Amino acid sequence: MLPQWVQLDFGSPKSFDRIYLLTTSGYELKNYELQFWDGSVWRHLLEVVGNTFTGRYHSFPPVNASKLRVICKSGPDLQPVYGRINELEVYRTE
What we know:
mainly beta, Jelly Rolls, 5-stranded antiparallel beta sheet, 62% strand
């Protein structure tokens, strides 16, 4: 049941400003939120509503965080109560 999430723990604070999220055709995350851990609380990074892409880049001003979380609020029409993530890449553009 939703919400479901996946969390990356970097072990120490890292600076990043780009995330690539990849799912499978037919199982796209329809509505989801990206959050980062600032050392004491989860902070909102961005929210996507109505997504239909299997692969999606997200760019934003650089943040420093030790953790990243993707919260799936709605899966695809095929399976609206499940979230599927195949790959999650985190980058620092210079």
